[in-house]
Fold this sequence. Notes:
Shape: globular
Number of strands: 0
Distance between the termini: 27 Å
Structural class: mainly alpha
CATH topology: Hypothetical protein af1432
Number of helices: 9
Order of helices and strands: HHHHHHHHH
CATH architecture: Orthogonal Bundle
Number of domains: 1
Strand content: under 5%
Helix content: 55-70%
Amino acid sequence: MPPTSTPLAERWPLRALLDVRDDLLVAWDRPGYHDLRHLGEVLDRLEDLDRAGAAFDKVPVVLAAWFHDAVHDGQPGAEERSALLASASLPDPPAAEVARLVRMTEHHQAFPDDLNAAALSDADLAILAADPDRYERYASDVRIEYAHVPDADFRAGRAAVLTDLLAGPSLFRTPQGRDLWEDRARANVLAEIERLTGAWPQT
């Protein structure tokens, strides 16, 4: 999954609202996993899905990628606050659709026939299919974001989140996402759960 060399500012999907774009770039510039690198990777994965033939409405989905973790402070309700920011920052359309997609990323419960949500969910979760070095950095950066949580509580909570992701028939909602990332992602997640709990989960 090679990154693009295009600067993030040039990947804003609108010709207007450049002040909103610039404010988002500032918001994403922070330590932890949900940083500018993550934003770029989600945009990269949307391009991967597009090239593979996934159908989705590019402008609202790309905007939702820009907003989906605009607020991320390790506290409950970050996705809702990000959705409210999208609603306040964008005209409608596409504000309502962007906000809906941002809210979806809290639990990644996208129905396969909801093409926009399926594409955004898959692009956001594609980090789970990263190569070993990137996956290790990803897991480490997630821990940084929850440094205020005691280790035992973090391990239990993180394992529960990962186990919940594995509970469905697949991690990815689009056929293209499954083809590109399912096998490696499932192996990575199972291995992380084992590291967190000392036990290989039953799936």
